[in-house]
Every structure is written in C-alpha cells, then in structure tokens.
Amino acid sequence: MRLLVVEDDKTIREFLTRALAESGFGVDASALGREGEKLALEGVHDALIVDLALPDMDGLELIQRLRAQGVTAPVLILSARRSVDERVSGLERGGDDYMTKPFAVAELLARVRALLRRSTPSQSEATRLRVGDLEIDLIRREAKRGGAEIQLTQQEFALLEYLCRNAGRVVTRAMVLDHVWKMRIDTSTNIVDVHIHRLRNKVDRDTQQPLIRTIRGVGYVLKD
User: Fold this and answer.
1) Hey, which residues does 64 pair with through a beta bridge?
2) What are phi and psi of 33, to 5 degrees?
3) How far is the CA of 131 from the CAs of 183, 184, 196, in angstroms?
4) Which domains can be identified in the chain, with CATH numbers?
5) Is the terminal CB of the chain with fewer CB neighbours within 10 Å at N or C?
6) For residue 41, which phi and psi values (nearest 5 degrees)?
7) Can you give the pLDDT at residue 118?
8) Three-state SS at 98
9) What is the pTM of this model?
C-alpha cells in the first residue's frame, strides 16, 4: 500500500518515511503543500499524513483542496496544535484522525493501519490485488499464485504491487524507477530489468500462462 507524507520538518519527514517503508509501505513525501497536492492528484495513495503548519499553505487548506478535487483517501493529521478546537476543526474540515506532536511511531503506525482497515466497507477488497490467479495481500505483504505462496524480497513485492496496480497498462522503466526506487534521473541503470527477470522467474515459473510481459523498447505489462 502507498502513503503520502506532507511534512515540512525534514527530520520528522525522513523519520516517517523510513519507519513507514520499514513497515512495508510505499511512501511519497513532500515538504510543501502545493507539491503534496500535485503528488496526491497524480498518484494513487491509500492514505495521507498531513502536517498543518506547512510553509506555503495551511494543512487544512490542502486537505480541503484535495477533497474538492475528489481525493477520498483517509487523512491522518499530524500537528503541534493541541487544543480541542484545533482537533475538532481538523476532523470537521476533511481529516479522518488527528495526532499531536511529539508522537510515538508505534501509535502512528497503528492509527494508519486502522484508517486503512475502515476506509472501505470491504477490507478484503481494499487490502488485496488480484490479476488472474495472482493475489497479493497488501497488509501481510504476501503474494500467491494459484494458492501457492511466492517468496519475494521487499523490492520485488513493491515492484509486483506497482505492476498489479497498473494491470493491463504498459509501464516504462522510467515510471518503475520513479515509483518503486524513487530514481528520476539515471534511467540507464539495469536494476529494473534485473528485478523483472527475478520476479518473472518467481511469478510465472511452472505455469502455462505467463503474466509479466516485456514490451520491447517500451516497458512492461502485467496482464492476464
């Protein structure tokens, strides 16, 4: 599952990004409200963590702008503002939960998972992706094909999740580098090809119907 963190404090932002990634989440992060808005509108995020004291706009304004543009992902507000009125205002203006700083990362992770569980009436549909007989569980970080579990590294799982979220659509190497490895410059690296090769050996091994296909000169597609 993918999260968006909008937090201007570099130390907190980097700490959150690392803690969430170590817990199995894909993470996009920004220090600015307008950049966070752009990321939220361009990407697919399962939840957002938003600080209120952003340098270019108030976090509540950001949340309201996103809601007005159709972003329905749950929002955890993270703020030093501690008064009851501030918390109520945050919840009434589009936030789904509110945590004050300083915070315990274990509690933040628990709150994020709780938001993800209740963000849709059907938890199983919200936390699983399926393409043909391939199924990945986004909470347990497990993948299965035909009911048999596939052992994947963290990067392989992130790559498979990205392919599943874009099932039927060709993704380029640059897109994969950007979304999975956060590399936006060196597209000449063969890291994508290496991981695709390894992933294909695990996902399509011992099957008559391969799912991961290479579109020569363009990129890759996962298709039933």
Assistant:
1) none
2) -65, -45
3) 27, 28, 17
4) 2-118 (3.40.50.2300), 127-222 (1.10.10.10)
5) C
6) -80, -30
7) 75
8) strand
9) 0.58
Q: What is the pLDDT of residue 9?
A: 92
Other CB atoms within 10 Å distance of the CB of residue 55: 8
Angstrom distance (rounded) from CA 96 to CA 116:
11
User: What span, in angstroms and rounded, lies between the C-alpha atoms of 207 and 124?
Assistant: 26
pLDDT for position 195? 92
Q: Please say whether the dihedral angle defined by the alpha carbons of residues 143, 149, 150 and 152, taken in this order, is positive or negative.
A: positive
206: left (phi over 0), alpha (psi -120 to 50) or beta: left
Give the residues across from 128 on adjacent strands. Answer: 137
Question: Can you tell me the distance from the alpha carbon of 169 to that of 155, in angstroms, rounded to the nearest whole number?
Answer: 20
Residue at 99: amino acid letter: M
Collect all residues with Cβ–Cβ distance below 8 Å to 188 and sequence separation of at least 6. Answer: none
Q: Per-residue pLDDT tens for 102-149?
A: 889 999 999 998 888 776 544 445 578 889 999 998 878 899 998 899
Structure tokens at 55: 């340098």
Share of the chain above pLDDT 90, in %: 45
Asked if 73 contacts 41 with a C-beta cutoff of 8 angstroms, the reply is no
Stretch 173-179: mean pLDDT, rounded? 83
The amino acid occupying position 47 is A
